[in-house]
Design a protein that fits this description.
It is built from 13 helices and 19 strands. The protein is of the alpha/beta class and 507 residues long.
């Protein structure tokens, strides 16, 4: 039987704020504080400002006083979006495979200078809380060896929110060792870590926090105090729990925001919130978009996202930005805000693909400087050779996208309590005008063959790149190296926790 230990983030915040009454004249660093919040498997419609059934007061306030990033693109599932964020590369220049317990032998390219390492060059203190999902087979891959000063969370891609069990072991980690505090709802432990980080932070120094929340990723679990925010008969059982998990993520984000304000750090902060992909099959609503996680339809890759904080100019607050942003763009944007060179060239790696989007955020530009956005290239996941590219107003999708459980559906706001219409799959191509047809109801590939050929040619130019560098040479999710038994035997002999099991290459 699971043991749900709870601790109130709100109560801890009250105590923390009381301690600051006589010490809120903190020095302000010349460089902005940067906070990036990932909400895991978060549906496009699963936030209060798009769906009144969702109770997310902090997300709603941040969007209202900030900028809604209405065309913010990510990969169609977890680990590649995180690799793009941390490296500034297109997914296929980082990796498109998803690290799962059976393929724990992989991780983000060690040749990359990860985002926190870049920011440390500018004197930032760097902190991570939550889900890593970028490798752990040896210590070179773990967060504190990729540039983070501290890390509390888990190393794999998903686990039980209460027991922290996944696969053959428990996954809970602090800095360089397993953390025995499993058995508590994960976000409550994250709140405790947030409190410790702010308590010890010198506010005269710039600050970076990567809050990579496990919510709202399956399994569907939420503390009773959050489930009870929603009336028992308000929706179906799974949807009620899912909505409560969104409220948990909102609460954790509020905890960070209120601490920043209590320490007089908010006016010099940029905070970005994004989903890592669309809502999960059978779970999240991406209304009114087509598709879900694991597809290249808008419901899989156009994430719910917004930016807020005191560094945003007054003229852009309360607006909705239509210019394209890709998750990789935050790497050069944050680097330049910190005053460091965003480039990361060298042997064994593609150069940084992201572009500086501060001109978009600040209102000095209204269009991306990307000529194109390559959402994915020639990778086999649920179907062979999948990919997608955006050029101008149009998106070309390559390969079948059906991945079971309503993956071709236009989900309603209360999905999965009710279901919406399904439209045909790409066979093998789909072409959409995503500006004038954002719900992708009108496939143009047959009616505009010349346009389809032009986008396909743009897509295929990536075939000229070194194939052994794309995805680190692994192009099929079903043929990845498997270290499951070796790793599990090591975990069993070392306390039953997930942890690096090979000697680091730098040793």
């Amino acid at each position: 039987m699971k043991r749900l230990v709870t601790a109130s983030c709100s109560l801890a915040l009250m105590l923390f704020t009381a301690l600051l009454v006589c010490s809120n004249s903190a020095a302000v660093p010349s460089k902005p504080n940067i906070i990036f919040v990932f909400v895991d498997d978060w549906g496009y419609a699963d936030v209060g400002f798009r769906n009144p059934a969702i109770k997310s007061p902090m997300f709603d306030e941040l969007a209202r006083t900030g900028v809604i990033l209405d065309r913010h693109y990510v990969f169609k599932y977890c680990s590649p979006s995180r690799a793009s964020l941390m490296s500034g590369r297109w997914p296929h220049h980082a990796h498109q495979w998803n690290i799962v317990p059976q393929t724990v032998d992989l991780g983000m390219n060690l040749n990359f200078t990860a985002m926190p390492a870049k920011l440390k060059q500018a004197g930032y203190s760097t902190h991570m809380i939550g889900k890593w999902h970028l490798g752990l087979k040896n210590e070179d891959y773990i967060p504190v060896n990729r540039g983070f000063d501290t890390m509390t969370g888990f190393l794999t891609g998903g686990e039980d929110h209460i027991t922290q069990k996944t696969g053959c072991a428990i996954d809970f980690w602090t800095d360089k060792a397993p953390d025995p505090r499993n058995g508590t709802y994960d976000t409550y432990t994250y709140c405790a870590a947030i409190e410790q980080i702010f308590e010890h932070h010198d506010t005269s120094n710039p600050f970076f926090m990567y809050l990579s929340l496990h919510n709202v990723h399956a399994p569907l679990e939420a503390p009773p105090e959050f489930i009870n925010k929603y009336a028992e008969n308000s929706t179906c059982k799974s949807r009620r729990t899912y909505q409560a998990m969104v409220s948990v993520a909102d609460n954790a984000t509020a905890y960070v925001v209120q601490k920043l304000k209590a320490l007089n750090m908010w006016d010099n902060t940029l905070l970005v919130v994004s989903a890592d992909n669309g809502g999960e099959l059978c779970i999240g609503s991406n209304y009114p978009l087509k598709g879900c996680k694991k597809t290249f339809f808008e419901g899989g890759v156009r994430s719910s996202a917004f930016a807020s904080g005191g560094v945003l100019p007054e003229k852009v607050r309360g607006t909705k930005l239509q210019g394209y942003i890709h998750i990789a763009d935050w790497y050069p944007t944050f680097s330049l805000m910190a005053g460091v060179d965003p480039s990361d060239s060298g042997p064994g790696k593609f150069p940084v693909d992201g572009v500086d989007v501060w001109p978009l955020l600040s209102g000095d530009a209204n269009q991306t400087t990307h000529d194109e956005i390559i959402l994915g290239f020639n990778f086999t996941h649920s179907n062979p050779d999948q990919g997608a590219i955006i050029v101008g107003d149009h998106k070309l999708i390559v390969g079948n996208q059906k991945d079971g459980c309503d993956s071709l559906m236009h989900s309603p706001q209360d999905y999965p309590c009710s279901k919406g219409p399904e439209l045909p799959d790409c066979n093998p191509y789909c072409l959409y005008d995503i500006i004038n047809d954002p719900t992708e109801k009108n496939d143009l590939y047959s009616s505009q063959p010349e346009l389809g050929k032009q986008l396909l040619a743009r897509y295929m130019k990536y075939a000229d790149e070194p194939r052994d560098q794309q995805d680190q040479g692994y192009h099929n999710q079903h043929k990845l190296p498997n270290a499951g038994k070796t790793a599990c035997a090591y975990f069993a002999a070392h306390g039953g926790y997930w942890q690096p099991w090979e000697k680091a290459s730098s040793v």
